[in-house]
Design a protein that fits this description.
Blueprint (H helix, E strand, L loop, with lengths): L6 H17 L2 H14 L3 H14 L3 H17 L3 H14 L2 H18 L2 H17 L3 H11 L9 H14 L4 H18 L2 H14 L1 H13 L1
């Protein structure tokens, strides 16, 4: 949107911006951007555009800072889909150290949007990231949080992967692992999937006789 700027001048400004970028003239491009930004009645889009310009000049840090500002502005304006799109763009640019922060943000945004498929997908990515880093406590935190956002039966595969990792790791208190084990058994029992339950119990038996005994006891009480 424009603030009473003649269309021809507006188009010229965009042309000059593109020209400066193509010539690698960063300071001139930012100068044209600042003039153009005054004509845009859209603060988050202006911040996003600034990020795009900085990224075109390989200023990764500056671009990411602008993108985060754009996300905050989009969220303040209840434009969550646009915020999520920018966050996904940051994720594509992120190194390992930045990924967990962006994934958490994406889970938050898609939770607000009530798009459970996206919530689950990014939670799975985050859990996998933590498990590769051998940060099982953080993977467990993601799973616990995910249980407050989506139905338990939607994350059975992810929970099984987590339980296997937790048992193999062996460092966390047993009660935390058992909480996940019980949720998994509850889900399989509710689905009345006897084959899946048998396969899961066989897997647990191969991993740990202690957890297998606990699982048998829990099933017998149910």
């Amino acid at each position: 949107m424009m603030n009473n700027v003649p269309t021809d001048k507006y188009n010229v400004a965009w042309f000059k911006l593109a020209e400066c970028i193509s010539r690698g003239e960063k300071e001139r491009a930012l100068g044209v951007y600042r003039l153009l930004a005054h004509s845009l009645d859209d603060a988050p889009f202006s911040l996003q555009l600034q990020g795009d310009i900085l990224l075109s000049f390989k200023d990764h840090k500056g671009a990411v800072e602008s993108y985060y500002q754009a996300i905050e502005s989009y969220r303040n304006g209840k434009r969550l889909l646009q915020a999520a799109a920018v966050a996904e763009h940051i994720l594509a640019l992120s190194d390992e150290a930045e990924k967990h922060k962006v994934l958490t943000l994406l889970i938050d945004l898609y939770s607000e949007l009530r798009i459970s498929d996206k919530v689950i997908a990014y939670a799975q990515t985050q859990c996998a990231f933590y498990l590769v880093q051998d940060e099982v406590e953080h993977a467990l935190e993601t799973m616990v949080r995910l249980d407050t956002l989506v139905e338990s039966n939607e994350v059975m595969v992810l929970r099984q992967d987590l339980i296997v990792a937790l048992i193999k790791h062996g460092a966390l208190p047993m009660n935390l692992v058992l909480a996940q084990l019980h949720k998994m058994l509850d889900g399989l029992s509710i689905d009345n999937n006897k084959l899946a339950l048998q396969q899961f119990m066989t897997l647990i038996e191969e991993l740990s006789s202690d957890y297998y005994a606990q699982a048998r006891t829990y099933l017998n009480r149910s």
